[in-house]
Amino acid sequence: MKVAVFLGRSCSGWQVHCADQIQCIYDWEQCDAETVHCVDGSDEQEDICRNHTCPSTDLKCADDLQCFPYLYLCNGRRDCYDGSDEAFNICKTKECAFRQRYCDNGNCVYITEFCDGKDDCGDNSDEKEPCFRNNY
């Protein structure tokens, strides 16, 4: 990861200062739910992120603290700390393929993956008791 540090200069038009007023980061790195980019951690602090406007290609998590790319919505990976990008009420609108079934978290897995001893859903709902493998 490259971090640009400018001493005594202002940030470029697409950059913002960290709280230390020394380091600059790209505005899309602020509140991005991926990595702390400012050495002081200010780019992911709650008071800054709650008022942060997400880039047009991103959505805001339900807790208002993070932005995430629209492509990450319902991708089976929890990108928001609060899990709202994988919420069942949002993700259940996608159709499961033939011979697949919904997990509790909205993901789809093949019916043969239910009750196989592995967490295929990502929330272990394909392995919860009572586990009847042939009860699709």
UniProtKB/TrEMBL annotation:
Any GO molecular function: hormone binding
This protein's GO CC annotations: apical plasma membrane; receptor complex
Keywords: Disulfide bond, Glycoprotein, Membrane, Receptor, Repeat, Transmembrane, Transmembrane helix
Disulfide-bond pairs as recorded: C96-C108, C103-C121
Family matches, as InterPro entries: LDL_receptor-like_sf, LDLR-related, LDLR_class-A_CS, LDrepeatLR_classA_rpt
Cellular localization per UniProt: Membrane
UniProt-listed SMART domains: LDLa
PROSITE patterns linked to this entry: LDLRA_1, LDLRA_2
Major localisation: membrane
Membrane topology designation: Single-pass membrane protein
GO biological process, one term: receptor-mediated endocytosis
Keyword Transmembrane helix on entry: yes
Descriptive protein name: Uncharacterized protein
Organism phylogeny: Eukaryota, Metazoa, Spiralia, Lophotrochozoa, Mollusca
